Amino acid sequence: MRAVLLLCALTRASAITTGIFASCAGPSASSLAHCDASLAPEARVAALLGQLSTDEKIALLSPTQTPFCACHTLANDGADLGVYRWLVETNSGVSAPCLAPGRCPTMFVGPLGVAAAFNRSAWERKGDVIGRELRALANVAAGRYGRENYTLYDKATVGLTGFGPNVNLVKDPRYGRNSELAGEDPVLAGAYAAAFVKGVQRRKGGILRSAAYLKHYTAYSVRRAASRVF
Pairing state of beta strands 84-85 and 72-73? Predict the structure, then answer.
């Protein structure tokens, strides 16, 4: 959890100057220990956690702002943390608009097709491409829906937490998300997910490049979606 918290709350690049997620960029940054990039990640996380109240910690980890599918957390001015979007779809590619003509996120064949290759190297390579592009889009503060949609829901930029792969199993042909799944076999789905996540979560200098969030960790129920948040 500490590594993911650092990844989500503190990662910044010099290219992030206009995006809504601009942490450790305000006038108080120089006085905040967790904004000191010369410190070890563990020290920065400890400094941040020591500054936050219990409610503030929960707010950073829980996308409680409606609409819930926006999955963003609001800024924390005292800690110089910007709005963060947790939900960036990465099941078949990073869900983000093209940065320019010909400069678009890579979109892969659906998981049913990719998993049918029975090729762990290909699955890991898919994760590697998605993890690399997720980091690149976050570095330039790319908006998930484009910069023209400037409501709070649409405005939060691409984060480093990708919602993928989807590891639910195909159990019923009527299920509307079967195209997002690797298949009906749990061994195949597990091997696919493991390789995918390994590719996404490559490390550089001991730091996660991106983080893969499995869908759906506990369950997925269309019938109960209106009254329960997973």
Answer: antiparallel
Please answer whether residues 192 and 123 qualify as being in contact, where contact means their C-beta atoms are separated by less than 8 angstroms: yes
Tell me how long the chain is.
Answer: 230
Over residues 50-75, the pLDDT tens digits come to 989 998 887 777 655 555 555 667 77
pLDDT digit string (tens) for 19-40? 335 678 788 888 999 888 888 8
DSSP 148: T
170: its two tokens:
């195909």
Half-sphere exposure of 138 (CA within 13 A, CB side): 30
Q: Angle between the 120-139 and 186-200 helix axes, to the nearest 10 degrees? A: 40
CB 112 within 8 A of CB 183: yes
Answer positive or negative: Cα dihedral of 149, 61, 125, 111: negative
Distance CA 209, CA 128 (A): 10
